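Thread amino acids onto this structure.
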């Protein structure tokens, strides 16, 4: 239970992070954050502990009490917003292309996909949003170091730089909690994964 996820909001109720229950309870106990319930009320550690005893839901046993797991916390002094620019990363390219090979149109598990440079790097192609697509292993081998038209292939969709971060589709779908929904429907938050180098 301590490793399950908690949505972290800045003081403007904007999602900025996902953390573990262990970390969320620590922030709550230190007074750095407050727990938020489904009526958007906020609670410090003591008031959350008192409220928790009478409510149903996931709980954790402490030395002297049982406390309900907060699924949303609010940082009391943090007002910065996550970066709005979408990171150029493998995860986000796969999300943009919906895990679908952009040559044959078939959807694959991520483990069966790779990234393909539409204009090969050996021919001056850059590693950018506009030149990289998802490709299955078979299509990638067929295309090789050629342009799609030279290999008799056609792109299903022209690659583009997304305006909205695709991570919302997947990061929170790993384990979504109904308490998160009001905050996730409002926002384009940045995914903090490894950014690919544009060259």
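Threaded sequence (199 positions):
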């Amino acid at each position: 239970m301590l490793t399950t996820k908690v949505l972290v909001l800045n003081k403007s109720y904007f999602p900025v992070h996902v953390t573990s229950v262990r970390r969320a309870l620590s922030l709550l106990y230190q007074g750095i954050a407050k727990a938020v319930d489904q009526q958007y009320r906020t609670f410090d550690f003591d008031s959350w502990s008192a409220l928790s005893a009478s409510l149903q839901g996931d709980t954790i046993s402490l030395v002297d009490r049982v406390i309900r797991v907060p699924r949303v916390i609010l940082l009391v002094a943090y007002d910065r917003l996550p970066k709005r620019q979408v990171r150029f990363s493998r995860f986000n390219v796969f999300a943009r292309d919906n895990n679908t090979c952009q040559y044959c149109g078939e959807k694959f598990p991520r483990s069966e996909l790779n990234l393909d440079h539409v204009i090969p790097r050996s021919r001056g192609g850059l590693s950018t949003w506009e030149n990289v697509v998802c490709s299955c292993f078979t299509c990638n081998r067929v295309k090789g170091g050629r342009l799609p038209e030279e290999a008799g292939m056609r792109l299903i969709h022209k690659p583009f730089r997304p305006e909205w971060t695709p991570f919302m589709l997947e990061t929170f779908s790993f384990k979504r909690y109904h308490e998160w929904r009001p905050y996730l429907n409002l926002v384009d938050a940045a995914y903090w994964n490894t950014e690919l180098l544009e060259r």
